[in-house]
Amino acid sequence: MNMRRTARPGPRWLSPTAGAVSLLIAASPMALAQAQTASQGADAAVEAEAQTTEDAIIVTGVRASIQSSIQQKRNETIISDSLSAADIDGLPATNLGDAIATIPGATTHREKGAASEIAVGGLGPFLSSINVNGRETTTGNGKRSVNFYLFPSELINSVAVNKTQRADLIEGGTAGTIDSRTLKPLDKAKRQITLSARGILTGYDHKLDDPAGLGVRLTGSYVDQFDLGAAGELGVIFGVQYQRSNSPEELLGGGTTWNACRGDLTYTATQTCTAITPQTYGSAAVPASTPYYFATTSRNNIQFQTADERVAWIGGLQWKSPTGVEVNFDVELSDYSFNETRQIFGLSETTRGMQNLVFGSDHILQSYTGNSYGEVTPTYRVQDETYRGGGINVSVPVTETFRISADASLSRTRRERMDRSVRLRSNATDIDGAVVSGVTTGASGGRIPYSFENFRDGTQSVLLNSAFGVTDPDNFSAAARVRRDDQTRWHENEAGRLDMHWTPESGWLRALDFGGRLSEMRYRSVESDRREYNFNVANTASTFNGNPGTYTVLLSTMAVANRACRVDFPQSSYLSGDRDNAVNNWASFDPVCLMQQFIGTEDPGLSADTRGIGNRNVEEDTKAAYIMASFGSDMVSGNVGLRYVSTDVISRGLRGGFNVLNNGNGTVSLVSNGQFDQLVDTYGYDKWLPSLNLSFDASDKFKIRAAVSRSMTKPDPAALANGRTFALDASQTSFPDVRSAIASITASGNPRSNPLMSWNYDLSFEYYLNRDSVFSLRLFHKTFQGGFVNVLQDESYTIGGQTFTVPVTVLQSSNETNRIDGFEVSASYRASFLPSPLNGLGFRGSWAYADSDYEQEDLRLGDQVNPATGQAYEGLVDPVGIFGMSKHVVTAAPYFQSGGFEISAIYKFRSAYYQQFVGDPSQNRMVRDEGTVDLNLRYRLNRNLVLQFQGTNITDTPRYQDMPILGSFREASYYGPTYFLGATLQF
For residue 599, which phi and psi values (nearest 5 degrees)? Predict the structure, then answer.
């Protein structure tokens, strides 16, 4: 049979060279010289333009937003970049994260084509903190990051990425602090009503046999001010957004478990490859020279149909009294619903019967043949997430030079996800008992012979035996498995802070700030409540009692369910972007219908007891205090401060309960009693965080900044879990004591995890050519402690009245010191020296580079240490770097604005990076180099009405992933472009 190529790599021109070269050209000495020559004339022209009539001409559009960002950058006391409301509205953004990703040095990880996590300076997202209105927020993903789907970009007034630390900022941003702000209504001079409507078209929607059609995003906001006379002035703001859209996706991929298989053995058609580990490879049983290759245990084709709906609200009141008292109240509400139907075809035994093996010295499997059961697993997912946040801030001037501010806030998130899936497996006979062509025969028959090829560009092809009818539902007649999985997470944060600000009347000391903050974070989760039912075909059917378990059914019962729940494959041209994909469709079923057929209900509901080892129950109390002095003269300004942070953690977890049986001969046996014992652990730490920021005005256009700070990044709430799984020694049934019966203890988390501590050194050079143009270079160096390693810690347990102490392997932050070095070049430039309308041409962009000596070992195949003996074993795969860190991040955005018309393109590139799986630690997964292009066209008909067309990922760039090393293909995800067409009315 002929092998055909699969997953096509992205366009070759989408490389870091394109963006970096454009950026360097724009910032070259020649460009600077030309701009310097024209700068005085340009500034004069700008002033003339703004003063041609009694009422100054208002600069709008992309140029206005750039001017606002440049001015904000110049005025800040730390190294920072920002977006204004006008900039955010003018960007093609599915959510707020897409807009933030255009800020110099910021980049995102994409899920279904939209931003899900933000990394600053090429560093991992967990090294950044994200606040809303200066407050910590909550999320349903078990992390400290924000779910950007909950926050519509149109209802955010500004976003600042603070790249250095300051004592009054909330701790947590080693790479940077992202602070998004809603509008204060009194910042507007008059009433403003804004209405916006956009249609949303996803690029792959037309492939669906039942397309969802045009999605919609409707936004409205109202801002007003009221003169209360002697009582002062009152401002109100109200905004709401409704969004409904879909995001179909196509995926070709492998499993999450990868083995190193011995390549010196010959396997039969029924054998599974012999896997080796660093321990076995380093022992006499497996000689160190033994060849091996990397193989995954499964491979899948997945077709996604999705739909989501979001309703988000913001509201605010602002009151200012004539005496200077100010009260701000704000609230943010968001309800996000998501549902998804997956049609999945997979091979579940892709390390079985591996023959005709070809692999290279890099251990990447190039080709082989095998046989495996084929499985269709239709799945229906429903997810609901609600966010409730807000707070009140009161500022009181005690004297003309002394002000006190108090802030109280609350943030709550609840996420519930339910999956219903049913598996049907290939068999030697179909649902009528007829022999199936193209599969293995015999007692364990029904497996499909296939061939696999991995190409040098890192893509793959799986070709099934052509005699097997993968599109025929009759052929999936065995081993039905019905599952209902439920995950529920609650994340809450209550906080209060008090700030005092003193401004001397004169002198070098400009201000003295000091204050404190209290917060209480609670995180709880039911990670996986699973109800599973298995049905095997037999000559006599068993009585199904409605409880999870294993049953037998008649073949006729299987046939009835199979026939009742068939659906047509829901799309055409599956993986058409993958030029040689061999599987274009397969037998498809309605998972909810199958569940009804097999267990008599569409939803069996939650288990009566949802307790589990993996559940989380964490409380974290934080107390912080700071003092900061701001100083300055005509040329030098800055601030110096010290922040103290005290953190206390209480984590409650579960372990399986056991009964101790006395064997009567001096030995004991342990028997699981099906119950749980609660574990409670407490931990605390105190940290001092000094910071210094300096700014030198070398001239009226040239500014130099320097910063030194110590920062901390706390572990994610989910990582502080305290569950323990006890595995009993299965080799014997009697033991001298309880301790001897325990073979191993697995930890679901570690409440004693320390934060990652880092010393940060930054130097920035900024040249402000004019109001439209700035060039900057930032250098940074970080030394940090807190890389994550497996360590042994002693823990005591009492079982059956006997207490024993054992070493438990947990993931902990290490004491090893690592470094991060990098630079960031950014530029904004308008060709103001050109004649009109060419003087509307401009460019903005950035290039961030980061390098670190930190190494993350693969969980199964990396360097390992025997916890009992301390012996070290060399890994079979090279380690990866910091989670989420890319060496190169490039953004290049040329634009043109003339009159009411503007057009801009945004090229975003990030080099390969390590991306953790959500949940517990797993093997190393690498996302390959990725470059995408977004497009924005706007036309302002008049001062009230703007028409807009936008597109994201217009190049239809897929996302490629490799495991456990680059080049060893795991997954290709295709989701296409997304287009927005609409209008904004403001009056």
Answer: -120, 0
Q: Is the dihedral of CA 362, 366, 369, 374 positive or negative?
A: positive
Residue by residue, DSSP assigns 895-924 as EEEETTEEEEEEEEEE--EE-PPSSS--S-
Closest CA to 887 of 823, 808, 792: 823
Write out the H or E segment, with its range, that includes residue 513.
strand 509-537
Largest CA-CA distance found in the chain, in angstroms, rounded: 104
Residue 144 has a pLDDT of: 81
Which 8-state DSSP code applies to residue 866?
-
pLDDT of residue 54: 34
pLDDT at 458: 61
Q: What is the pLDDT of residue 181?
A: 85
So what's the pLDDT on residue 986?
Answer: 87
Burial 763-773 (b: 16+ CB within 10 A, else e): bbebbbbbbbb
Alpha-carbon gap, residue 40 to 474, rounded angstroms? 78
Handedness of CA 959, 961, 966, 970 (dihedral sign): negative
Q: How far apart, in whole angstroms, are the C-alpha atoms of residue 965 and residue 854?
A: 16
Residues 328 and 316 sit within 8 Å (Cβ to Cβ): yes
How far is 831 from 772, CA to CA, in rounded Å? 9
Q: In this structure, are residues 344 and 300 in contact, taking their beta carbons and an 8 Å threshold?
A: yes
DSSP at 183 = P
Count CA atoms closer than 13 A to 250's CA, side-chain side: 27
**CA 329/CA 409 separation, integer angstroms:** 10
According to DSSP, the residues that pair with 499 across neighbouring strands are: 405, 515
What is the predicted pLDDT for the residue at 457?
63
- HEC string of 221-266? EEEEEEECHHHCEEEEEEEEEEEEECCCEEEEEECCCEEEEECCCC
CA atoms of 775 and 670, how far apart (whole Å) = 70
3-state helix/strand/coil string of 932-945: EEEEEEEEECCCCE
| Res 116: pLDDT | 67
Q: In the structure encoding, which two tokens stand for residue 469, read together? A: 């009818």
* CA separation for the pair 919, 476 (Å, rounded): 32
pLDDT at residue 23, as a whole number: 37
Helices 591-599 and 555-564 meet at what angle, rounded to 10?
150
Burial bucket for residue 706 (CB in 10 Å: 0-12, 13-18, 19+)? middle
The contacts of residue 658 (CB under 8 Å, 6+ apart) are 670, 671, 672, 673, 726, 799, 800
Q: Where are the beta strands (DSSP E) in 786-929?
A: 788-799, 802-813, 817-830, 841-852, 864-865, 872-873, 888-898, 901-910, 913-914, 926-927
Structure tokens at 303: 């077709």
Residue 847 main-chain phi, psi, to 5 deg: -140, 115
The answer to whether 271 and 352 are in contact (CB under 8 A) is yes
In the chain, DSSP finds a helix count (H) and a strand count (E) of 9, 50
347 and 372 Cβ atoms separated by less than 8 Å: yes
CA pseudo-torsion sign 19, 21, 22, 24: positive
Q: Which two tokens stand for residue 182?
A: 């809603």
Residues 6+ positions from 287 with CB-CB distance below 8 Å: none
Three-state SS at 44: helix
H-state helical runs in 545-644: 555-564, 591-599
- Can you read off the two tokens belonging to residue 686? 């105190």
Q: 230: which residues sit within 8 A by CB, 6+ positions away?
A: 322
**Residue 838 per-residue DSSP state:** G
How far is 483 from 533, CA to CA, in rounded Å? 7
Give the chain's residues under pLDDT 50.
Answer: 1-57
- In the DSSP assignment, the letter for residue 969 is E
Residues 6+ apart with CB under 8 A from 335: 310, 311, 312, 384, 385, 386, 387
The answer to whether 192 and 236 are in contact (CB under 8 A) is no
Beta bridge partners of 76: none
In the chain the first and final C-alpha atoms are separated, in Å, by 67
Distance of CA 271 to the CA centre of its chain: 39
